[in-house]
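Hi R.,

Here's the chain you asked about this morning:
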Amino acid sequence: MSKIINITTIIVLLGFSLITLNSCSKTDARKVSPDPRERVKKNLEEGRGFRLMDNVGGKGKGGDFMFASANELWRASLDTIDFMPLASVNYSGGIIVTDWYSDGGSDESLKISIRFLTNEIRSDALDIKIFYKKCKDIINCKITEKSGSLVTELKKKILSKATIYRKENKDKNFKPYTGKTRARE
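And the predicted structure, written out as tokens:
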């Protein structure tokens, strides 16, 4: 008898946890329609839902893989600094570090470090550091970290590219919702 009560208690607690955790989201209630049909339509058009009949009969895609190419901020950062050699790139750790870069005409080199604090496209999502290395000869080098207009310009360029990538991705995933399934058509 106590074993049945323990199992029932576990199932109830698990169900309660799932319901509670499922309701956690960052949605502004003022921007969401109270009509459930409109919410379903919007979610499916933006690619946030799934359509059961899309994968029946071999018509579906092989699968959607969410790697670094799906993160607009990550892609924009790599595209912005693509002219520089990369020393370390760690998507799961959220960091990109370039190697020392010089245009060849001076004794000064620079290195960029980009840390991702969040995947959301916003001004505080990136921590960018730029290091300068000035060498008088091969052995005598001085490395300094500088902040200023270059950091601001780099951040602005990455954020604007990421915004463009997000819009392109949203447009690409858009599928009009007709309210019908393919089986009935």
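The first helix runs from residue 2 to 22.

Let me know if you need anything else.
M.
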